[in-house]
Amino acid sequence: MEVQARPEQRAVAAGPGQAAPIIRVEHLYKQFGPLEVLHDVSLSVDRSEVLCVIGPSGSGKSTLLRCISLLEPYSAGRVYVEGALLGFREVGGRLVRDRLRNIDRIRRNLGVVFQQFNLWPHMTALRNVAEALVLVKRLPRRTAEEIGRAMLAKVGLADKTEVYPSRLSGGQQQRVAIARALAMEPHVMLFDEPTSSLDPELVGEVLQVMKQLAAEGMTMVVVTHEMGFAAEAADRVVFMDAGAIVEEGPASRIFRNPHSNRLQQFLQTWKERNVIDAV
Amino acid sequence: MGSDSDLLIRYGPQLLSGLFYTVYICGLANLIAIGLGLAVALLQGLPTFPMRWLCRSYIALMRGTPILIQLFLLYYGGPSVGLRLDAVTAGIIGLSAYGGAYFAEIFRAGFQSIPRGQIEAARILGMSSAQIVSRIKIPQMLVLIVPPGVNQVIIIVKESAVLSIITVPELTKVTIRMVSETFVIIEPYIALAALFWILIEAISWLGSALERRMTRHL
Prior knowledge:
- The complex is a heterodimer.
- By secondary structure, chain A is an alpha/beta fold.
- Chain A contains nine helices and twelve strands.
- In chain A, α3 runs parallel beside α5 and α5 packs parallel to α6.
- Chain B has one domain: MetI-like (MetI-like fold), CATH 1.10.3720.10.
- Classes of the chains: A alpha/beta, B mainly alpha.
C-alpha cells in the first residue's frame, strides 16, 4: 500500500507496516456562516487504535467526524487519510477542491456509522449490506450477498438477512449499518454517536459489536456519550469543548486523573447522573 | 325512459369511440407527463443555474395559466408559427405539458422527503450520483408519491374534458354533439358523468392496489 507523507516531506515515503498515522487532522477549522464550530483541531489516529471523542453536545465532535469523512467540507486546515489529502489538491502551494473520483477513492478507506443508522428502508438487511459491493466494487450479486451474509452473521444477525429495516429494532438496524460499512473493508471505522438514538436496553448489543471490532484490531474513531465504552475500549480519549480539543490522553488517565477544569466538570456531571441512575 | 335508453344505444358506437379517445389520450398524456415530470424534477436538482431556471419557469408557466388557454394557443395559435397539429395530437401534447409541471412538483417533494442521511450513507460507500438517484432516491420517491400521483392522474383525466373545446372527439365532445342533435340534455350528461366516474374509480382502485404493493416493506 502506498502511504503518502505530507507534501513537504514527500521524499520520506513511508513503507508498509510503518507506524504512519492512518488519519491525520491538521489545524482544522469549520465555520457554519458566522458560527465557528471547529477551532484549530489537530489530531492523529494510528493503525489499530481506538480513539474516543467525548464532550458536551455542541462541542463540535460530530462535526469533526463529518469533516474527517468530508460529509462536511472543512473551512481551513487539512485532513489526511492514509497519507492522502482528502477533499483538496495542492496546486502551487494552494488548496484546490479535488475531483469527486479522487475523493471517493480516498474515502473508500473509511467506513462511517451514523447516529440515525441511515439504512435504506426499501431494501432488506442483506441488500443494504450487499448493494455497494455490487454497485461500487462491481462484485457479482451472488458474491456480494455471500459477503453480506457473512457480515450480518458477524454482527449477530444471520437470521435477519431478508428482513426490512422497519421490522428491526434500533439496535439491530445499527448492527446492519455496521455490517454495511464493514463489507467494504474500510481501514478505519468512524462512529458518530452510534448509540445515541437507541433505547437504553439496546445500547449493549451495539457496543458489544464495537468492542469485538476493536479487539480484532480495527482502527476506530468513536464519537460517543458512552463513558463506560470509552473507559473500557478506547486506547486514547479526546475531550472536546467549544470546538476545540481541551485534553487528550490514554483512557485510564483521562477518566482517573483529568487535568483541565472543564473535563473535571464534564466528568463530574456524568458521575452524578450515573449515581442518580443507580439509586 | 324507453326512448332514452334507445338514445344511448343509438349513440353507443359514438360513445364507445369517445371513451376510446379519452382513455387513449389520457393514458398516453399521463405516461408522458410522468416521464416529463421526473426529468424536470431530476434536472431541477442539478447545480447548474440555467437548467434550474428553465425548469422553474416551465413549472410556473404551466401551473400559472389555465389549461384551456394553453390549448387554444397550441391548437389555434400554433399554425401561425408553423406548428400544425391535429386535434388529438394537440390534446395529448397539451395535457402532457400541463400535467408534467404538476408531476415535477410531486416528484420534487418526494425526493425532498428522503432523509439526507441515507444519501450520505450511499455517498460515503462510494456510490455515484447516478447510482444514488436510480437505486436510493427513485425507488423510495416512487413509493412516497403514489397517493398524490394517483390524485394527479385523476385530475388529468377530468381535465381532459376541456379537450372537447379544441374538437378532440373524446367523450365530452361526443356527448355535446349528442345533446345538440337530440335536444335531450339530462341523460347524455348523466351518462357522461357515469363513464368518467367509472374510469376514475378504476384508476383509484388500481392506485390503492399499487400503494399496498409498494408499501409492503414499511
